[in-house]
Each structure stands twice: as C-alpha cells, then as structure tokens.
Design a protein that fits this description.
The complex is a heterodimer of chains A (311) and B (253). Chain A is α/β, with parallel strands linked by helices and 311 residues long. Chain A has 2 domains: 219 residues, P-loop containing nucleotide triphosphate hydrolases (Rossmann fold, 3-Layer(aba) Sandwich); 65 residues, Alpha-Beta Plaits. Chain A has 11 helices and 14 strands. In chain A, the strands form 3 sheets. In chain A, strands 6-7-8-3-9-10 form a 6-stranded mixed sheet, sandwiched between helices. Chain A has a 4-stranded antiparallel sheet with strand order 2-1-4-5. With 253 residues, chain B is mainly alpha-helical. Chain B has one domain. Chain B is 75% helix and 0% strand. Chain B contains 10 helices and no strands. The longest helix of chain B has 38 residues. The radius of gyration of chain B is 19 Å and the shape is globular. The model of chain B has no long low-confidence stretch (mean pLDDT 94). The chains are: A alpha/beta (311), B mainly alpha (253). Chains A and B meet through helix 2 and helix 3 of A and helix 1 and helix 4 of B. Bound molecules: adenosine-5'-triphosphate (ATP) and magnesium ion (MG). The site of magnesium ion (MG) has 4 residues of chain A, from helix 1.
Chain lengths: 311, 253
C-alpha cells in the first residue's frame, strides 16, 4: 500500500503513564478519505491514542507513521497538516470568537490576510458568523464545540482528529456537525473520530475499531461488526417481578443464537423475531411484554465491552 | 519565512491588547513615587555626596534595575503558571507546528517587551528628575533589559515546575525580597558583613545595578562592564534552557 493511500499507520502502538498501560500495542491503518472511528468505554485509551496521532504525546512503544512521516521525528511537519478537536475545548475565553481563529492561524504561520478570510468562511461553515465578535465566554457549550471544529480547519488539514466532537450537543447541533463532517469527507479530508454515540458511529464511520482496556477488541465497518457480533433482530422479553430469569433463559436457549440475561429482561439474539414468538407461545412462556427490534451497534458494543462499568 | 515563535508571541500581544490599559497608569506613576519618596525624601537625610554623587543619583539606576526585576518576576510567574494550569494557552500551541522551544521563546519575547517598557518609563522618569549624567545613559535601558531577562528565564522555569502557588511565596520571600534589599541598590555591598558579600555578587540584580549605574553616571569601573553583561547573559541563557526542559517535561506527556 502506498504511503499516500494510508494516512495513518500504527504498529504495536503503546502508551504508558508510569505503570499504567493506557494503550496496549494497537495496530491501525487509516485510509485516505475515510471516516475512521474509535469506540470504547471510559478509560479505554481513545484519547491517549488520539493524542499520540496528534503528535502531542510521544508513544511509549511501537511505530506510528502519519502522512508518510514518522510521528516521533517529524512532529511539527505532521501537526502542520492536522486539524485537532481535543476532548476538552481549549479556547481562549477572554478573546472573541474571531480572535480565537486568527490567533490559532498564526501558530501555523498563516498570513493575517489569509487568516481573516478563512476565519470568515469557517464561521459561516459552523454557523457562528453572527457571533464573531462576542467573547467565547458568552457562547453555549455547543457553540464552543463548533468553534473548536472551525479552529481545527483553519490550516486546511489533510486529516482531522475529533475526540468526542458531539458530546454535550443538542440533537440539532449534532446533526449540523455530522452534516459538516460529511462535507469535509466529500472534499477528500480524512477524519478520525471517537464517540460514545453508536448512532453517530453508524451514521458517519466507514470503518471503526472498538477499544477496551487499551486494546482493540474488534474492527470493521459498522455493517461488518453487526453481521459478525450481532443478529439481525433482538427479542426483548420482560416477565413479572421476581421471575426466575436464569431458569427461563434455559428454556429458550435453543430458540436463539445467543441469550443474554439482564436484571430486568431476557435478550434473544435471533435472525427473525417473528418466528420466535410462536415458539415462545408453544412453550407456555408468557412474558409481560415482548419487543422485537433490529440488532444495533449498541448491542455489538455492549457484547464486546461488557455491561458493567469498568472503572 | 518568519520564525515560528512569532506565532506564539502574537498571541500574547493579542491578549495584551485587552488588558494594557488597566496596568498603564501604575506603570507610569510608580517610578515617580519611588524616586520622589526614597530618592528625595530619604536622600534629604543623607550626606549630599553619597558615594560621590548624591543619594538620588546613586539610587535611581539601581531602582531601574529593580523595576526590571519586578516586571520580570510578575510576568514570568503567574502568567506562566496560569498558562499551564488554568487557561491552558500552551495546549493549542502544542497542537500546532510550534515546538516547546518556540512556545517559550514567544512568551519570553513578550516578557522582554514588558520589561523594556517598564524600564523605558523608569528611564524617562529619571530624566525628569535630572539624574543621567553621561552620554551613555540610554544604555541603562539595555542594562535593565539584561537584568530582567536574567531573572525572567529562571523564574519561568520555576513557574513551569510549580505544583502549587507556594512556589511563588517562597520565591518572593527568599529570592526577590532579599535580592532587592542586598544587591547594592540602596547602599553599597561593601557595607554588608563580609560573609554575605559573595551572595550579593552572585545576584543578577547586583550586576544589573552596577551596569545601570556605570552607564547612567559615567563612573569609572567601565572595566567590569563586559563581565557584568556576560554574567547576566549566562543567567538568561541557562534559565532559558531550564525553562524549555521543565516545560517539555510538564506538557509533553
Ligand atoms: N496524563 C495522564 N496521566 C496518567 N494517566 C493518564 C493520563 N491520561 C490518561 N491516563 C489514563 O490512561 C487511561 C486511558 O485514558 P484515555 O483518556 O485515553 O481514555 P478514553 O478512552 O479517552 O476515555 P473517555 O471515554 O473517558 O474519554 C485511563 O486509565 C487514564 O486514567
Ligand atoms: Mg477520551
């Protein structure tokens, strides 16, 4: 594969903080023009990985090449062509919206006149043009997030890294961001993002990896992951209070590819829910409620990373 | 192509544009307070030809160096600590092509500007009081700038290393205040106990004061000028590399 087609190549990429292993030797290939996603529970190592790719955090081990350059030796040259949306906004609250963009553009050696033009374009792009002269202080959380995205684009990057770009946004703002990210992809920009929203991953990502405890536990397109780790449909059965769910599960194991016992219900992973229901009836099982729904990425995620809180 | 550090420098000036008015009045008036209050007020009780020149003339160049030190400490302590701990201004810089060395250079460039500005105001006030007696007197501004930078870079390193603001309390009590009092600004170092004199000679403020005094008053120890300059440069340069090392350890994790 030519270095141009693969924008980011990581092999055995590792990050340690003293004796804590945040990223435990992962391999990644991000191709030009795709949207690549990281999913994973809190503390999985997503941000640590993003910071290494952003060349602000030196890897503790492994190799990392970005745009054909070595992350360790050519950090400044790589950063010149990256856009970064960190998990926490790092805007200057004392400065105005426009000043935040202009100041940042100067870090990239962009001339004042070009910076002014791009600032205006980008503020249009993220729909903040009418707020240009207000202090960041006066913006809502969602507006600050959009400003951070605009700032990441000021150097016309080849790759944009977005660490939880839509956390804390209302549905309108999320859809606006998705639509803008999609437009960037159409212009040929490569996007790498992390998210806790499965619908976001499903909508946006061409390919994604699921991280857990610093390692990659699954990778593929959303559709591939669904096919590999989930069934087409899921039947959710609720029984009365204090029903012996574990015993009930034994009675239906043969009806499903997999049965999962939750505190309040049973999940039957099946190819076709409509054929399951009569079978339940035949066995004299009388759930108080039955729900047949499609299998989702959320099911995949919970299956792979477990339902309990890790930390 | 301009040096990348100018990108960082630009940030501090943009921020300054919002705040300079609030500090301008005190910067302009404080030198007058000092020169009138101590130079003339205290000087009135002191022998007319103190150290051969009169107390006001003796004191003024030293106070110029003190004002450089005060500005240096003020600008290299809290703003640096805050840029790491609270306002996080360095993080977006790090995400750009800027290297840590550019970030430090840019910030120190702004600190140098502040030092030169306060020293310039002090020098102009000295002119009002009729202190300068030598054609070399404007070089006192250079003496002030050197003294300020000799102090600013190590203070920057200390601020970048600070885990809490206790660092600054210690720095002031055991660094800045004794240095200000015992570096030959208010009275000659020879009046100190012999054991303490070497400490005074080690202080950058003593070298800065001597330089400013020689240039302002045209006194006869011109022989030592290159030594004072070299000594102050060593502090500035060593402090700069310390600052870079400490900031790298703090931010690049
Ligand atoms: N600067 C640091 N010093 C020490 N430990 C750290 C540091 N940064 C991250 N870690 C640890 O590394 C692990 C991975 O953290 P990371 O921030 O990469 O997780 P994440 O997947 O982004 O989680 P989240 O979804 O909560 O943002 C955690 O155990 C975290 O405590
Ligand atoms: Mg994170």
């Amino acid at each position: 594969m030519s270095p141009d087609a693969t924008m980011i190549i990581a092999r055995g990429l590792t990050k340690r903080f003293e004796d804590r292993v945040a990223v435990a030797g992962i391999d990644i290939d991000v191709r030009a023009g795709e949207i690549f996603g990281f999913l994973g529970p809190n503390g999985a190592g997503k941000s640590s990985t993003m910071r290494m790719i952003g060349c602000v955090s030196p890897p503790s081990g492994g190799t990392l090449r970005i745009l054909g350059m070595d992350a360790h030796r050519e950090g400044p040259a790589i950063r010149a062509r990256l856009g970064v949306v960190p998990q926490e906004d790092q805007l200057d609250w004392e400065l105005t919206v426009r000043e935040n963009l202009l100041v940042y553009a100067r870090y990239f050696g962009i001339s004042r006149s070009v910076a002014r033009r791009r600032a205006d374009e980008l503020l249009e792009f993220v729909q903040l043009a009418d707020r240009a002269n207000e202090k960041v202080d006066a913006l809502s959380g969602g507006m600050r997030r959009r400003l951070t995205i605009a700032r990441a684009l000021v150097n016309e990057p080849r790759i944009v890294l977005l660490d939880e770009p839509t956390t804390g946004l209302d549905p309108q703002a999320r859809h606006l961001v998705w639509e803008r990210l999609f437009r960037l992809k159409q212009r040929g920009v490569t996007l790498v993002l992390t998210t806790h929203y499965m619908d976001e991953a499903e909508q946006l990502c061409d390919r994604l990896v699921v991280m857990d405890g610093g390692s990659i536990v699954a990778e593929g397109s959303p559709r591939e992951l669904l096919e590999r780790y989930c069934t087409r449909e899921v039947v959710e059965l609720r029984f009365g209070l204090d029903a012996p769910l574990a015993e009930l599960a034994d009675k239906v194991t043969d009806l499903a590819e997999r049965v999962e016992v939750l505190p309040d219900r049973l999940l039957l992973y099946v190819p076709d829910g409509d054929t399951t229901l009569p079978a339940l009836h035949d066995r004299n099982l009388t759930p108080t409620s039955v729900l047949v729904r499609r299998g989702t990425l959320e099911d995949v995620f919970l299956h792979l990373t477990g339902r309990t809180l890790v930390d | 192509m301009s040096h990348p550090a100018f990108g960082a420098l630009n940030y501090w000036f943009v921020q300054y544009r919002r705040t300079w008015r609030s500090s301008l009045f005190s910067t302009l008036i404080v030198p007058t307070f000092y020169l009138a209050g101590i130079g003339i007020g205290v000087g009135g009780y002191i022998d007319d030809d103190y150290a051969g020149v009169g107390y006001l003339a003796y004191l003024a160049p030293g106070l110029l160096a003190v004002s450089a030190v005060q500005t240096a400490v003020g600008e290299a302590s809290w703003p640096v600590y805050g840029a790491i701990k609270f306002n996080k201004q360095y993080l977006p810089m790090l995400a750009s092509p800027l290297r840590v060395i550019d970030i430090v250079l840019g910030h120190l460039g702004f600190i140098l500007f502040q030092i030169v500005f306060s020293v310039l105001v002090f020098f102009l006030t000295m002119l009002l009081f009729g202190v300068p007696q030598s054609g070399w007197a404007p070089l006192a501004i250079v003496a002030g700038a050197l003294t300020g930078m000799a102090v600013a870079t190590p203070v920057y390193a200390a601020a970048a290393n600070a885990k809490s603001d206790d660092t600054f309390t210690v720095l002031n009590r055991f660094g800045v205040i004794p240095m200000t009092l015992f570096s030959g600004v208010f009275f000659p170092v020879e009046q100190l106990p012999a054991l303490i004199q070497p400490l005074a000679w080690a202080s950058p403020l003593w070298h800065g004061t001597e330089l400013a005094r020689v240039w302002t008053l045209g006194m006869d120890s011109a022989l030592f000028v290159p030594l004072h300059v070299a000594y102050l440069l060593v502090w500035a340069v060593v402090g700069f590399y310390l600052a870079r090392t400490v900031l790298t350890r703090r931010l690049v994790v």
